[in-house]
Amino acid sequence: MESLDYYEVLEVTRTSDKESIKKSYRKLALKYHPDRNPDDKDAEERFKLINEAYEVLSDENKRAIYDRYGKEGLNGSGGAQGFGDIFEGFGSIFESFFGGGSTRTKRGEDLHALQELHLSFKEAVFGCTKTIKNIYKVSCQKCNGTGAKDGKLQTCSTCRGEGKTYIRQGFVTFAQTCSACGGTGEKKVENCPACKGKGYENKEESFEVTIPEGVDSGNRIRLQGRGHADKNGKRGDLFLQIHADDDENFIRDGENIYIEVPVFFTSVLLGQSIKIPSLRGELELKLPSNAKDGAQFVFENQGVKILNTSAYGKFVAQITITYPKKLTAEQKELLQKLHESFGNESAPHLSALDQCFAKIKSWFKN
After folding, report:
1. Roughly how many angstroms between the first and final C-alpha of the chain, as a whole number?
2. Phi–psi pair at 106, nearest 5 degrees
3. Cβ atoms of 323 and 293 closer than 8 Å
4. What are φ and ψ of residue 71, in 5° steps?
5. Could you say which DSSP state residue 291 is in?
6. What does DSSP assign to residue 345?
7. I need a labelling partner for 38 at 20 to 30 A (CA). Which of 109, 150, 169, 200 fits?
8. Tell me: the pLDDT tens digits for 200-245?
9. Is the pLDDT confidence value at 85 over 50?
């Protein structure tokens, strides 16, 4: 994994813009976050590397240095930050997305938890009440959250209790978090038998939460005090990641709703009014006699409620003009009479192509 460059780590190209990099980072950070991959060291290391790559590629100056000189170039520019940990000033990017404030994470974990919440199209549009089953972490009482038997820890021999190791390159020395103790400066003598060295145990709770009207896939709802607990019992936050189903008839684009309405050609010619379904019942659509196939008709304030406002989006009906697949002899006769009743108006192609016919005839005269 270490041989991968930062663009490969975030699964983007060197020409990707900041928004694409951010989008890919969020997707990968969610996938490999330790809360989703408990006791998975590979996922934990991947999560750290993803954060490291994003720290560089999200910063224009660092990205420019990396593009030109690679990782060595970043090391060489580290003097501007001082001799501390070159990532110490960054904090956790994951916290910035999930409301973590300024507290740094240890071993890629924090007090926040993430849970996907699946909603039907109707539930997302109109809001609902859902029962949430939540599993959260609490500090192991047997070892006081240390993960060590009887809470006994010893000074880390790798960093000698400092929590950091140092690398010297030329005249500059860089510090990085000790990989042996995770930056704590202490190591377990023996794993706690109660929590098997994890330092925490899982608890389960169930509660109801009101989902507001107008949520959509990708939205997050923050539930304060429903996340993991620290050693003092204070709990972080739980974030519900919304996934909303599509509908077989309505197409949602943010707060706007689209529907395709098949209309028989005679209804258009006659300028009829038709009833169409909407989110909240029926709407009347008056068809102008000159309506074209694919024409859109907008109904204001008939779409989805815009979150945190009292406003609503648009409801857009797009017509598709249909024609009969087969005609009886009687229908053909009636259409022929109708066609002839329009006179020259029924053959617009003739007048439109007169000049073209004349030009072609002149070719043969010559």
Report:
1. 77
2. -120, 130
3. no
4. -65, -35
5. P
6. G
7. 150
8. 999 999 999 999 999 999 899 999 999 999 888 899 999 999 999 9
9. no
pLDDT in tens, 299-348: 999 999 999 899 999 999 999 999 999 999 999 999 999 888 887 666 66
Specify the amino acid at residue 76: G
More confident residue, 75 or 192: 192
160 is written with which tokens? 């000698």
Q: What phi and psi, each to the nearest 5 degrees, are found at residue 195? A: -105, 0
Please tell me the number of Cα atoms within 13 Å of 90 on its side-chain side: 20
Does pLDDT of 103 surpass 80?
no
CA-wise closest residue to 218 among 251, 245, 241, 247: 241
CB atoms within 10 A of CB 309: 9
Q: Is the pLDDT of residue 159 over 50?
A: yes
Cα 19–22–23 angle (5° rounding)?
Answer: 85
Q: Would the pLDDT of 101 be above 60?
A: no
Dihedral of alpha carbons 233, 161, 83, 66, sign: negative
- Alpha-helical (H) ranges within 177-316 are 265-269
Do residues 226 and 136 make contact, with C-beta atoms less than 8 angstroms apart?
Answer: yes
For residues 130 and 208, the answer to whether their CB atoms sit within 8 Å is yes
> Given a cut of 60, is residue 272 above it in pLDDT?
yes
State the virtual CA torsion across 60, 64, 69, 70 in degrees, nearest 10.
50
Cα–Cα nearest to 136, from 241, 285, 238:
238
Angle formed at CA 294 by CA 291 and CA 300, multiple of 5 degrees:
80
Can you tell me the distance from the alpha carbon of 246 to that of 249, in angstroms, rounded to the nearest whole number? 9
State mean pLDDT over 161-176: 78
C-alpha torsion 63→66→71→73, nearest 10: -120
Identify the three-state secondary structure at position 207: strand
